[in-house]
Design goal:
Layout (H helix, E strand, L loop, with lengths): L1 H6 L1 H68 L3 H9 L5 H7 L7 H18 L12 H10 L5 H14 L3 H5 L3 H8 L5 H18 L8 H4 L7 H11 L9 H9 L8 H9 L7 H14 L27 H5 L18 H5 L12
Length: 361
């Protein structure tokens, strides 16, 4: 009994040792499985991780660029200026709003330089530019300028020889019979109103200025039918005192060139005068008016034959084809007659022709 009892613990020890031996084996297998699973997970994680990193990176880049592009695009456009310009001209005619918006932004200095360069270019094209009204003295010039309203200088020049032959002085015209003057002035249009003006200004000259045309702006504008435009024509061309003549041609061109967006003649005169030295004003007026009559016409400008096209913001409003544009020119070098019956020698030397007298041709 004792022997058998003593022999029983031996297998127990073997079992325990076997259990001990088996346990690590089971643990190793489990560990291997776990390790294998971990490696698979790790490899899967490694495969997934770069994909996750790459995908957001690719998506993030455009996402970051898009807002930058959206923010940068408005920065290139200056929205503030048009808004201010539009707000400033509310209640004004639409034409002002359109012209107030420049084709390109231009500083004051750049505008002055461009304006003066245009004048220099025109001075080379029209070195013989002159007032296109025939006159021999200040009295004839002031009367002719008053008569030039609502008609051409050519028509005035064809009419005034008969008028001045019959009434050579302010005293003579002041004492004239209105009906006789009307008959002479009929070809100029609005002849009754013009007769009243020229007789009235002649009386004022005879009574207030001793029969002499005054050489001051403040005196000239007091004469019947004489405004600032007429006064500056007389001052600049009869007395050699600088002045800007703002006629229809001058208004049209300075607005096309964006020298000013004003429409009132007095404001145009002030705005353009500020761009040039005072000594240039009279010749500037001749250059602009001559260019308006010969090339930069109201309805169809000859853009393709214009010498200042590179400086003009309105290029393209007229005919741009050079050959077609040449046909629109009214130009001395083409042998076309001018406005004056007695033009200056420089004009004739440049190829210009005197205008025909009234009734000729």
């Amino acid at each position: 009994m004792k022997k058998s009892a003593e022999k029983k613990p031996t297998p127990t020890k073997k079992t325990a040792s076997a259990a001990k031996t088996t346990a690590p084996v089971k643990k190793t297998a489990a560990t291997k499985k776990t390790a294998a699973a971990t490696k698979k997970t790790a490899s899967a994680t490694k495969k997934t991780t770069p994909a996750k990193k790459t995908t957001p990176a690719k998506q993030a880049a455009p996402a970051e660029r898009t807002p930058l592009a959206k923010r940068t695009a408005p920065a290139k456009k200056p929205p503030a200026a048009p808004k201010k310009a539009t707000a400033a001209v509310k209640g004004v005619a639409p034409a002002k709003t359109v012209t107030a918006k420049p084709v390109r932004e231009e500083s004051r200095t750049a505008l002055v330089r461009r304006a003066r360069r245009i004048d220099r270019e025109l001075a080379e094209v029209y070195p013989y530019a002159h007032p296109e009204l025939d006159f021999e003295n200040p009295f004839q010039l002031v009367v002719a300028t008053v008569l030039s309203a609502q008609t051409t200088d050519l028509r005035v020049n064809q009419t005034t020889p008969a008028l001045f032959a019959k009434y050579p002085t302010p005293e003579d015209l002041a004492a004239a019979v209105p009906e006789e003057v009307e008959e002479i002035l009929r070809p100029t249009g609005f002849f009754r109103a013009k007769t009243k003006s020229v007789i009235g200004l002649s009386k004022a000259l005879a009574e207030d200025f001793g029969g002499e045309v005054p050489g001051r702006l403040e005196d000239l504008v007091k004469l019947p039918g004489v405004g600032r435009k007429t006064a500056f024509v007389v001052l600049g061309n009869a007395f050699g005192r600088p002045g800007i003549t703002v006629d229809t041609h001058f208004q049209r061109l300075v607005r096309r060139w964006q020298w000013t967006a004003e429409t009132d003649p007095d404001k145009i005169e002030a705005a353009v005068g500020a761009l040039f030295p005072k000594s240039d004003w009279t010749d500037l007026s001749h250059h602009v008016i001559w260019h308006g009559r010969r090339i930069c016409h109201a309805r169809k400008p000859a853009c393709g034959a214009c010498p200042i096209a590179p400086l003009c913001p309105a290029y393209g409003e007229g005919e741009t084809d050079p050959e077609k544009a040449k046909k629109l020119l009214k130009y001395e070098k083409g042998g076309l007659p001018g406005q004056r019956l007695k033009p200056p020698r420089a004009y004739l030397d440049a190829g210009g022709k005197p205008a025909p007298p009234l009734g000729a041709g």
